[in-house]
Amino acid sequence: MKMKMIIGAVAMLATASAVNAQGFTEAKFGIKGGWNSTNITNSKEGNIDDNNRLNTFNAGVVGVIPLGSTFSIRTGLDLQSKGTESTTTLVDEVKTTYKVNPMYLELPVNVAVMLPFNEKVKAYIGAGPYAAVGIAGKIKTMTEVGGVTDETSRSIEWGNDNPLAEDASDQEGQVGSGQFKRFDFGANIVGGIDFGRFGVHAQYGIGLTNSVPGQTTDNNANKSNQHRALGVSGVFYF
């Protein structure tokens, strides 16, 4: 009797393992959307001192490609809204707030470790690179003088110049044309839980390029003007 019970238990474990492994061997695709909290570094060391985080959004398509029974590649194409908000006071009566909001089409390629709880519920954690191209965005300027606020907005012009310079010959730090570099790349740290056809996905994106370069020749070598984006999304798999 004991031998039959042992054989039965082993058979049940083998069946459960086969079911879980089967869940890793089929690619799946879906859509996602959610909330971003973003910022841009403003020092050569990659620090964020006076900038405020900007609440934005993310949306896109998701692809999960299994690599055996444990690992998978999580990829897709995302629309990532990024940016920052900062405030400067030139004199006591004049306060200017800049809200910078570039949007990118982003291609992530993350390698994830799958952690199954049961047949349907599976957690994962992973990391990988991303490449992005800028497609749209706005820079809003709000100036408050004596309690009266004036707001202006301009579209981001994608190029290689500082967005706070009037033109390529101006000095860094002046208000101007609003140009960002067209291309960006970096790394993501991801994690989440899939509940069958639904899931919750979280990621932290670390930009590695100077996305809004200044006019100094060594500015591309430091860690200023790099994107930082924390995102949480809901996922629906087809």
Largest sheet: 8 strands, antiparallel, barrel
Structural class designation = mainly beta
Strand proportion, as a percent range, falls in over 45%
The coarse overall form would be elongated
**Tally of alpha and pi helices:** 1
According to DSSP, the number of beta strands is: 12
Supply the number of structural domains.
Answer: 1
The portion of residues assigned to helices is under 10%
Low-confidence parts, pLDDT < 50 over ≥5 residues?
Answer: 1-23, 163-177
Oligomeric form: single chain
Q: Order of strands across the biggest sheet?
A: 1-2-3-5-6-10-11-12
Radius of gyration: 23 Å
Q: What gap, in angstroms, lies between the N and C termini? A: 46 Å
- Report the order of strands and helices: HEEEEEEEEEEEE
Structure description:
It is a single chain. The protein is mainly β and 238 residues long. It has one domain (2-237). The protein is built from one helix and twelve strands; from the N terminus they run αββββββββββββ. The strands form two sheets. It has an eight-stranded antiparallel β-barrel. The chain has a two-stranded parallel ribbon with strand order 8-9. A hairpin with a 2-residue loop joins strand 6 and strand 7. The chain is elongated and about 65 Å long.
